[in-house]
Amino acid sequence: MSSDEILRASQAMENLAKMVLERRNAATVDEKMRRLDDLINMILQINDCHAKVDREKLEQSLLRQSVETVEKNHQQYVLIPVMPVQRKAPARRRQSKLQCSFCQEVGHTRAHCEKRLHP
Fold first, then answer.
1. Residue 34 clears pLDDT 80, i.e. is over it
2. What tens digit of pLDDT does each residue of 57-103 get?
3. 53 burial level (CB within 10 Å; 0-12, 13-18, 19+)
4. C-alpha span between 31 and 70 (Å, rounded)
5. What is the pTM of this model?
6. Which long-range contacts (CB under 8 A, 24 or more apart) does 2-7 make?
7. What is the C-alpha R_g of the chain?
8. Lowest mean pLDDT across 29-33, 46-50, 63-67, 110-114
9. What is the C-alpha to C-alpha distance for residues 109 and 99, in angstroms, rounded to an integer?
10. How many angstroms separate the first and last alpha carbons of the chain?
11. Where are the alpha helices (DSSP H) in the chain?
12. Residue bearing the bigger pLDDT, 29 or 98
């Protein structure tokens, strides 16, 4: 092998090593963001907040290194962007489809049955 070929092979190996490190670092950042997202969402659930982390805004502020802080009672706190979570209302059975187990009529239950309550 000539010195020119050795030099090109060395440069190719160096470029390959850089690509591997970049991908490893990118995967590490993604994994760290996922873990941070999971952790903050767990904290929000403990406090029964109806919110979750706004991951896009959090990533942007971390990449810009411009995380907001506030001071309360001589203690610094970091502000984390969150967004409201829409809670699904429990499915309610339609009254018109309920059948009374006392009189067998549709539209009410045994607890509200006029025939049972007022014989």
1. yes
2. 888 888 888 888 899 899 888 888 888 877 676 666 666 678 889 99
3. buried
4. 27
5. 0.44
6. none
7. 31
8. 46-50
9. 6
10. 107
11. 3-46, 55-64, 114-117
12. 98
CA dist 85 and 79 (Å) reads 18
Domain coordinates in residue numbering, the chain: 3-84, 88-119
Structure tokens at 42: 């767990």
CA 115/CA 108 separation, integer angstroms: 11
Q: Is the dihedral of CA 18, 55, 62, 33 positive or negative?
A: negative
pLDDT bucket at 55, cuts 50 / 70 / 90: confident
SS3 106: strand
Encoded tokens for 66: 């411009």
**Distance (Å) of CA 60 to CA 31, 63, 67:** 16, 5, 9
